[in-house]
Amino acid sequence: MGFTVTKNSQTLVVPSSRRPPDASPSPSSTVFRWSGCSGMIHVFGRGVEPTKVIREAVAKVLVPYYPVAGRLTEDTDDGQLQVACTGEGVWFTEASVDCSLEDVSYLRSKPLMIPKEELLPSPPGGVDHKDLIFMIQVTQFKCGGFTVAHKNTHVVFDGIGTGQFITALSELARGLVQPTVEPVWCREAIPTPNIPPINMSDFPAIPSFVFEHRILDIPLDDIRRVRKQFMEEMGLRCSVFDIVSAKIWQSRTRAIGLPSDADVSVNFTANIRQELCKELPAGGGYYGNCIHNVTVKATSGRIAGEPLVEVTKLVKEGKEGLSAKFARWLQGDPSEHRFGKIDYGTMC
């Protein structure tokens, strides 16, 4: 059965009051200066006038988070992306769908019974999405439930920063006068590595792949079992991320069936705020990119054949080497500021 999402209106939501006087063009973090976008869908069983409440909360949250209401531009000197604090606002989409959340299994089905593209916001025709920092869509269901979906650029946010912004938005929607965590821009506090400017044309193009989309359900009981086994065998704790990454890496390695001596790797980004505790404000609130790439490599035979706890150990050890990797990056080590090889044996 197909369900139709109707996008009833799209409007720009601007800050509810004037931006601060120091809201001049701001540089992005030296950690991440290339455009990229991520999206997320939140599901709520019920709400009172959610579209109105959330739209008003967006206008309020854009006051302390005034750069989010701006646009991405290029610095005329080095061509790097920066934020122009224009106060133009974020795109807000009001939508509705002709079914209840129960009809679509509360968006837990595999695959989704409503394509995620219909629930995620998209700019109207004629608007360049590459300049936008944040977009949001509220979709109301017949049962009174609703979804809140958003897209944001990685130039301004990392995962932790996105979570901080959405938490602030939800606090204002619940009636708080101001967010409990005061945001700070502070991009200039991120150290500049001792490397020459990066020209993206110097790097080979990422090969074009045809991706297979899969939803993998890893029960919490299985995760708890592996964590317990890891503690018993290694005498150490491991995170849910370690286990899930290891499981996906192992499953994919088995599926693609490379020769046992072929190299396979997993790439992910990790938080480096702890490495910059002297540079960033002590009270927190930094919501910009503060990540560094981690690559873990092993042979196909090892990843496919060893117990999951051993693969989990490799992922954990890769994360623990982050401090040294980041220090080498700051010192200008060319191996730390080049993109890793991306091929059939690489999982990102």
UniProtKB/TrEMBL annotation:
Record's compositionally biased regions (Polar residues): 1-14
Record bears the keyword Acyltransferase: yes
Region (Disordered): 1-29
Keywords tagged on the record: Acyltransferase, Transferase
Keyword Transit peptide annotated: no
Pfam families cross-referenced by the UniProt entry: Transferase (PF02458)
InterPro entries xref list: CAT-like_dom_sf, Plant_acyltransferase
Any one GO molecular function term: acyltransferase activity
Family membership noted in the UniProt record: Belongs to the plant acyltransferase family.
Name used for this protein in its record: Acyl transferase 4-like
Organism: Iris pallida
Upper classification of the organism: Eukaryota, Viridiplantae, Streptophyta, Embryophyta, Tracheophyta
